[in-house]
């Protein structure tokens, strides 16, 4: 490794960093700002998706398009996933624009309390990875389909409506945050 690294035998420092940053496995790449504040815990995913580092230092985006490389984030806690009808970039972009203001509002609310947001936000098109996710979580093929998936709790919350509007998304998220939704098992 040509970069600075803590030597593997230095168990004490590695252990302190693991506790400080919640590291549970390797490889892990956490990007920090000059003050030592976390920019992203998803440095590894970001490097894979942006090998030329055009978007470095990879400040988190409020809404991500679900891909093979970032699907690992589904395991980190509850995730709102809006499944759309096609892999057409126009439809995915429209879906992102629909949920982005809600995601930004939730993120800002928790950031003001110096807490991490309780949800990640994704848009999923039609591809093999999305099909596998639907199969694994036993989700219907309907689209649009608004869900919150909590892999660690093995629970899902599904809002199957004809049309997804900002009001529907916001009510769904708020009901989830105050435990009004009934989970279904994954």
UniProtKB/TrEMBL annotation:
Pfam families, sorted: Thioredoxin_6, Thioredoxin_8
Occurrences of domain Thioredoxin-like fold (ranges): 1-38
Domain of life: Eukaryota
InterPro entries, alphabetized: Thioredoxin-like_fold (IPR012336), Thioredoxin-like_sf (IPR036249)
Protein name: Thioredoxin-like fold domain-containing protein
Organism from which the protein derives: Anolis carolinensis (Green anole)
């Amino acid at each position: 490794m040509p970069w600075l690294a803590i030597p593997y035998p230095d168990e004490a420092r590695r252990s302190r960093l693991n506790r400080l940053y919640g590291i549970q496995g390797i490889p892990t790449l956490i990007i920090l700002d000059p003050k030592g504040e976390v920019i992203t815990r998803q440095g590894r995913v970001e490097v894979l998706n942006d090998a030329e580092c055009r978007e470095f230092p990879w400040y988190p985006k409020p809404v991500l398009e679900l891909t093979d490389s970032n699907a690992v984030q589904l395991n980190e806690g509850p995730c709102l996933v809006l499944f759309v009808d096609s892999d057409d970039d126009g439809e995915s972009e429209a879906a992102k624009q629909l949920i982005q203001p809600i995601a930004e509002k939730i993120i800002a609310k928790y950031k003001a309390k110096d807490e991490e947001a309780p949800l990640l936000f994704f848009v999923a098109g039609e591809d093999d990875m999305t099909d596998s996710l639907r199969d694994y979580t036993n989700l219907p093929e309907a689209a649009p389909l608004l869900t919150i998936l909590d892999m660690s709790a093995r629970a899902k919350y599904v809002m199957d409506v004809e049309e997804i509007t900002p009001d529907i998304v916001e009510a769904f998220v708020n009901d989830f945050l105050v435990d009004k939704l009934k989970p279904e098992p994954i």
